[in-house]
Amino acid sequence: MNILLTSVGRRCYLVEYFKDALGGNGRVVCVNSDPLTSGMAAADTQYTVPRVDSEDYIPCLLEICKKEEIRLMLSLFDIDLPVLAKHRGQFESLGVAVAVSDPWVVETANDKWLTYGLLLEHGLGTPMTCLGIEAAWQALRNGELVFPLIVKPRWGMGSIGIHVAEDPAELEFFYQYTRKNIIRSYLNILASNDIDNAIIIQQMVEGQEYGVDVLNDFSGNFLASVVKRKLAMRSGETDIAITENNDEVRKIAESIGSILRHRGNLDIDVMVEATTQIPYVIEFNVRFGGGYPFSHLAGVNFPSVLLRLANRLIIRKESLEYKVGVCGLKALSPRCI
Amino acid sequence: MNILLTSVGRRCYLVEYFKDALGGNGRVVCVNSDPLTSGMAAADTQYTVPRVDSEDYIPCLLEICKKEEIRLMLSLFDIDLPVLAKHRGQFESLGVAVAVSDPWVVETANDKWLTYGLLLEHGLGTPMTCLGIEAAWQALRNGELVFPLIVKPRWGMGSIGIHVAEDPAELEFFYQYTRKNIIRSYLNILASNDIDNAIIIQQMVEGQEYGVDVLNDFSGNFLASVVKRKLAMRSGETDIAITENNDEVRKIAESIGSILRHRGNLDIDVMVEATTQIPYVIEFNVRFGGGYPFSHLAGVNFPSVLLRLANRLIIRKESLEYKVGVCGLKALSPRCI
Q1: What is the distance in angstroms between the Cα of B272 and the nearest Cα belonging to chain A?
Q2: Is the CB of residue A40 less than 8 Å from the CB of residue B331?
Q3: Domain total in chain A
Q4: Residue B177: which CATH number?
Q5: pLDDT confidence tier of residue B274, bands split at 50, 70 and 90
Q6: How far is A122 from chain B (nearest CA, A)?
Q7: What is the structure's pLDDT at B94?
Q8: Is the C or the N end of chain B the one with fewer CB within 10 Å?
Q9: Residue B249, in any domain of the structure
Q10: Measured between alpha carbons, how far is B305 from B213 in angstroms, rounded to an integer?
């Protein structure tokens, strides 16, 4: 059987994991709007496709699914997920198992304000968050927020930075700066309608960060989770991490999975505050994240599980279990393309 | 013979290149103050050493050179270079060939204000640069500078960002912000004496960026150069590049090498302005940079050349020649440590 990875980007290791899971019985097909990425280079077959916001995007993917006899499809990019979630039925009609969650799940994960609401509603620890600058000034006056604060776009936008504001002048500046960059980058998508509600200001929590992967089957039933302590970050992505047995963090992550009933992998960031040891959920994404390799290195094999689910085969228990204390890093490996 | 790479950081590919060059006839020994890096993991032998600003640093390296019978040493980190340059003689007394340039060369490369002066003095194109904010305001009034401008620390500081200022408010903010971060990061090294001269403001040049490697022998004589067109950057490091035959850029790079008479590799960034096609030298570093793998993939083998120079062997011509049009990228390769 053949597999389609959309918006593959730089995730060449996931391409390799899926190739290994196939064991020669099928190909990994990758698509991306930019052909020059390591993920595209690692694919068995690759197609340069229109951007996810193009009208031609879904018709193009449907054609590829037919032509390449795709039986499992997943995406590696937040902006791609709502588009695929909306059209999931069309792919399923072609016999493709789609590891993309329901539209409300994707929307909640992509919208950090909705994420905050969902976490509050379910009594899960999360940093105090304000929508827009006026709410933040009010919360600062009330003492609900204290500096340092995080200023970030409400919707996932890879190219726009997250800033730490340490005083009112930095808050005002980074708010306006983020606003300008959002308008510039995504003018045609969302900014024109609701730019004043496009930035969130969040209490910064300092401590030990964890990443958790929670795997569900295609009906949203829990299969496995892996907890990793992050040891080094680089450009917002986990660079070094070690697997851990941390019941408190694991339970929080699994409860988010049981609320969302997502399909496939869920990637969750939890910050355990340095002095109080209270865990705060920072955000989550309903896809394979940059931290999955550390789970894989510790023994789970989620690509293989998804493949067997799509084929209605029994899941091997060892694909769901991980060793504690496995430390991994991402090496840079230069190659020709 | 054994080789010592200091401040190896994440440059695991260079460790591999040196291992290949040794072909089993010796070991690559790596040292770093942080043991958890991919470079350290790739070494044959690794030592966690004091930070480069510690009094114990040089004695510790000398001990390692003796114990491990090191015959060639080089560093991969700007902050490390002046320390090694100052003590080069002590290593040479032990019979170690040191691919570290003279102190004035290292100082000029590390200090972007001195870099600017050297380029001006030799009539090489470089963006108009001001030291400190008052000079920048003056140059803006005169029309010598126009927005957008680059605000960056004068001395190489990996953790402190480079910012683009598009108007006076952004210039004022990023100047103060960079100042604050320099004071915080390097208080004990330089900021207390000369913080008002620790930031440069440079005309931003938009266009096509090139990276050039220029290899000299241990007497500062030219051996080879490789020109690469940068196709993608990530966190300030070249991620995708293609080798090119560009005489204009090559000549500029080689003339810098002939001025500096550096030892080993010189890594140069040149921006060719989009409309005028004028090349501007942005900065240079007298060490292997993040762009070297693209030269290596195209056929040169500078690690092998350095090894043979240290052994007083004849240099193979093919180690100095590259193929044009070779496109490379850095894949992320997860592994256990």
Answers
A1: 22
A2: no
A3: 3
A4: 3.30.1490.20
A5: very high
A6: 35
A7: 97
A8: N
A9: yes
A10: 14
Sheet holding A149-153, edge to edge: A129-131, A199-203, A149-153, A163-165
Nearest residue on chain B to A159, alpha-carbon basis: B234
What's A322's domain CATH number?
3.30.470.20
Could you tell me if B217 and B296 lie in one domain? yes
Closest residue of B to A169, CA-based? B173
pLDDT at A160: 78
Interface probe, candidates B329, B330, B335, B336, chain A, greatest A C-beta count within 10 A: B329
B19, containing H or E segment: helix B12-22
Stretch B142-164: mean pLDDT: 89
Q: Is residue B187 part of a domain?
A: yes
Q: Which domain holds residue B184?
A: 128-203
Same-domain check for residues B283 and B298: yes
Q: Is residue B106 part of a domain?
A: no
Distance from CA of B20 to the nearest CA of A (A): 15
Nearest residue to A328 (alpha-carbon basis) of B219, B142, B37, B102: B37
Shared-domain flag, residues B138 and B214: no
- Residue A38 sits in the same domain as residue A152: no
Nearest to A13 among B231, B234, B334 (CB): B334
Q: Which residues of B touch A17 (CB under 8 A)?
A: none
Tell me, yes or no, whether A191 and A293 share the same domain: no
Contact between chains at A331 and B330 (C-beta distance less than 8 A): no
Q: Helices B12-22 and B302-310 meet at what angle, rounded to 10?
A: 50
A189 Cβ partners below 8 Å, 6+ apart? A53
Per-residue model confidence as pLDDT tens digits over B292-313 = 999 999 999 999 999 999 999 9
Query: Is it the case that residue B270 has pLDDT exceeding 60?
Result: yes
A275 touches chain B (CB under 8 A): no
**Residue with structure tokens 């207390």?**
B192
**Which residue, B146, B173, B203, sits at the end of a domain?**
B203
Contact B13 A330 (CB under 8 A): no
A322 and A220 belong to one structural domain: yes
Residues of A in contact with B333 (CB under 8 A): 12-13, 330-333
Give chain A positions within 8 Å (CB) of B326.
336
pLDDT grade for B186, boundaries at 50, 70 and 90: low
Question: Would the CB atoms of A296 and B334 count as touching at under 8 Å?
Answer: yes
- Provide the pLDDT for residue B159: 66
Q: Does some domain include residue A154?
A: yes
- Same domain? For A224 and A325 the reply is yes
Q: What string of DSSP letters covers B253-275?
A: HHHHHHHH--SEEEEEEEEEETT
* A148: preceding bond cis by omega (within 30 degrees): yes
Query: Which residue, of A203, A233, A256, is where some domain finishes?
Result: A203
Average pLDDT in the B109-129 region? 97
Q: Look at B13 and A332 and tell me if their CB atoms are within 8 Å.
A: yes
A314 interface with B at CB cutoff 8 Å:
no
The rounded percent of chain B whose pLDDT value lies above 70 is 97
Task: Answer yes or no: are the C-beta atoms of B172 and B133 closer than 8 Å.
Answer: yes
Q: What is residue A156's predicted lDDT score, i.e. its pLDDT? A: 72
B8 and chain A: CB distance < 8 Å anywhere? Answer: no
* Neighboring chain A residues of B147 at a CB cutoff of 8 Å: none
- Contact in structure between A278 and A237 (CB atoms under 8 Å): no
Same domain, A241 and A159: no
Average pLDDT over residues A191-197: 71
pLDDT for residue A186: 63
Q: Which residue of A has its CA nearest to B164?
A: A177
The mean pLDDT value of chain A amounts to: 95
* Mean pLDDT across B234-244: 91
